[in-house]
Amino acid sequence: MQIWIDADACPAVVKDILFRAAERARLPLILVANQTLRTPPSPLIRMVQVPGGFDEADKYIAERVQAGDLVITADIPLAAEVVAKGAHALSPRGERYGKENTRELLDMRNFMDTLRGTGVDTGGPPAFSQADRQAFANQLDRFLRRPPR
User: Fold this and answer.
1) Are 88 and 148 in contact (CB under 8 A)?
2) Which backbone phi and psi does 82 adopt, to 5 degrees?
3) What is the pLDDT along the chain (149 residues), one digit of tens a residue?
4) What is the pLDDT of residue 20?
5) Residue 29: other Cβ atoms inside 10 A
6) By the 8 A CB rule, do 49 and 33 touch?
7) Contact of 71 with 90, CB cutoff 8 Å
8) 10-26 pLDDT, tens digit each
9) pLDDT, tens digit (0-9, with 9 covering 90-100), for 122-142
């Protein structure tokens, strides 16, 4: 099992949690972004820089993820794609993506996108909070203790 991070928009505090978890669990961790990101020195952690462009990091991850891997992403289409491949996905806010909720989340995302396209101001997500950080850390810890089948 490997951990993949859709790293362009992943909060720094979540990356720090993942760096520590990868070392503790002795799991390979791969950050994928269209810019160079700093990583701690570790044979388990590596950074992959993809070309700039729409969804390049998502495409890279989707092409390489294997069943059983864990992907950290806020991108619902990427989450749906990796779940369909038998991998697991977790948002930086600690929400587990699975076969049972990705269709509903994609439908809501598409609906909100349609609203924005008609000029409706839908706002954005709330600021990343301490509660979000804790929810992510707890969900990651649960996953690493007992990965779902």
Assistant:
1) yes
2) -75, -35
3) 999 999 988 999 999 999 999 999 999 999 999 999 999 999 999 999 999 888 899 999 999 999 999 999 999 899 999 999 999 999 999 999 987 776 775 666 555 576 667 777 766 677 889 999 999 999 999 999 986 66
4) 97
5) 24
6) yes
7) yes
8) 999 999 999 999 999 99
9) 666 778 899 999 999 999 999
Is-contact 19 37, C-beta < 8 A?
A: no
Nearest Cα neighbor of 1 from 21, 26, 20, 23 is: 26
Q: What is the CA radius of gyration of the chain?
A: 15
Number of residues written out for the chain:
149
Query: Percent helix, strand and coil across the chain, each rounded to 5?
Result: 45, 15, 40
Q: Identify which of 142, 137, 148, 110 has the alpha carbon closest to the alpha carbon of residue 15.
A: 137
pTM of the model: 0.84
Cβ neighbours around 144 below 10 Å, total: 16
* Neighbouring C-beta atoms of residue 119, cutoff 10 Å: 6
Q: How many CB atoms lie within 10 A of CB 129?
A: 10
For CA atoms 1, 27, 143, 129, the dihedral sign is negative
For 41-74, letters b (16+ CB in 10 Å) and e give eeebbebbbbeeeeebbbebbbeebeeebbbbbb
